[in-house]
Amino acid sequence: MEISYPAGRDVIESVLPHRDPFVWVSRVLECEPGVSVKAELDVSPDLPLFEGHFPDYPVLPGVIIMEALAQAASFSILVARDAEGALGFFAGIDNAKFRNQVRPGDTVTLEATIVKSSRRLCVAEVKASVGDTVCATATQKYVLATAEQVA
């Protein structure tokens, strides 16, 4: 697949299987397929989750930050493999550190470097930042499969 960057939501949805309300990548700024990716997430103040996640002091939950990082990494992996119909499932999250909060209205930069990629298992070093401030880091592991393989 030939993709020019920055790539918007239509391209992201042509690669990732996720759909609203669970697409956590707003745009992909650059991507070296199977090697690295840099993307962004615009954190809308209107997200319904802010009504219940500390309503008097809304912050984006760490689990959503980890999911956004996984979606960005998966974009790079799936583009490299031209793996239409593939699903990426978390196999592990190691050494996750949450260093700063992500607030409504922030734009989060999502970066991933793929450090291992075999037929079924991929490992990525990931980092989420707002401006120059690192918000979260981790080593994430994913298993790739089709819906038929996991059914």
Give a verbal description of the structure.
- The protein has 151 residues and is an alpha+beta fold.
- It has one domain: Roll (Thiol Ester Dehydrase, Chain A), CATH 3.10.129.
- The protein is 21% helix and 40% strand.
- The chain has helices spanning 9-15, 62-81, 147-150, and strands at 27-32, 36-42, 86-98, 107-117, 121-130, 133-146.
- A six-stranded antiparallel β-sheet has the order 1-2-4-5-6-3.
- The chain is globular.
- It starts with 8 loop residues before the first helix and ends with a helix.
- The relative contact order is 0.20.
- The model has no long low-confidence stretch (mean pLDDT 94).
The total strand number stands at 6
Rg over CA atoms: 15 Å
Shape assignment: globular
Strand order of the biggest β-sheet: 1-2-4-5-6-3
- Secondary structure category: alpha+beta
Number of domains: 1
